[in-house]
Amino acid sequence: MTAITENTVTKDNPAKKRALGHFWGRVLAYVLVWAWTAFTISSIIWVILSAFKSKREVLRSGFRLPSELHWENFGTAWNVGKLGDYFPNSILLVTASVLIVLIVSAPAAYVLSRARFKGREALTNMFVLGMAIPIPMLFIPIFSLLAFLRVNDSLTGVSIVFVAISIPFTVYLLTGFFSSLPKELESAAVLDGCTDYQVFRHVMLPMATPGLATAAILNFIWLWNEYQLSLVLLNSPENRTLPLGLYALQNAMQYTNNWPGLFAGVTIIVVPTIVVYAVLSERMISGMTMGAVK
């Protein structure tokens, strides 16, 4: 009787039906998000626990705590796997690339969000289209261009590529953020005699700090784990980054069955990005939220 009544009310009341569908849609979304979150967290915990276990424990103990902490696994990954040599390369490459991306993208985003000139919409759409180009399609032209410039197989050449492919997304993100900032402060600075550069440098840029932090975090996490471009553009062992070092470590460890050493290498690469995201996630979310409001 209750089911018949509910079906009748739902059929006779479209608003009730939409509300019920919205409720179950939210329930399904929450279930999927929490299921994915639980899977991700459990995978990270399993990898970190496995990094401290012996070879036998990795295959048998599952999620149980290691009976003894095997710190030598990290020594194997750091020294034998040469991740200690690749770590400075990744730090230098990613940090320099992110800084250059912000230096180039911030003024461009400010102009696109504030200035009114012919072709502004077309120029903005070009940045949006730049995000849609699949990276594998760029391998041959990028390799040819770097060879022509004589910066192939170098961290400088890879940094140039990292900056170029990161600019479209960063400009798009910062354009939305600059658009959300109040125009009254900009007008007041102009009335006080500030030039356009002074308005940007001393007024708008400090207010855009959350947006810049958001762009820096997202670019850092992506470039830190970038593998495809580094594999194609870097051939010399001394120029390898951490993702390439992890791939070489995986090839070496699978013949010795030293899976704890491999998990230790994964931990060395993954934990820094997790720490950065955990520490700065609140600022990143606030920056994305402010940039979404126009």
Topology:
Layout: H1 2-12, H2 14-51, H3 55-60, H4 72-80, H5 83-114, H6 120-130, H7 139-149, H8 155-180, H9 183-191, H10 196-207, H11 209-224, H12 228-233, H13 242-256, H14 259-292
Helix pairs in contact: 1-2, 2-14, 4-14, 5-8, 5-11, 6-8, 8-11, 8-14, 9-10, 11-14, 13-14
How would you describe this structure to a colleague?
With 294 residues, the chain is an all-alpha fold. It has 14 helices and no strands. The protein is globular, with a radius of gyration of 25 Å.
Structure summary:
With 294 residues, the chain is mainly alpha-helical. 80% of the residues lie in helices and 0% in strands.
Give me the count of strands: 0
Tally of alpha and pi helices: 14
- Give, in order, the helices and strands: HHHHHHHHHHHHHH
Give the class-level CATH name of the largest domain: Mainly Alpha
Mean pLDDT across all residues, rounded? 82
By CATH, the superfamily of the largest domain comes out as MetI-like
Unreliable stretches, pLDDT < 50, 5 or more residues?
A: none
In the CATH hierarchy, the third-tier topology of the largest domain is known as MetI-like fold
Query: Helix fraction?
Result: over 70%
* Main sheet properties: none
The value of Rg in angstroms is 25 Å
Mass-distribution shape:
globular
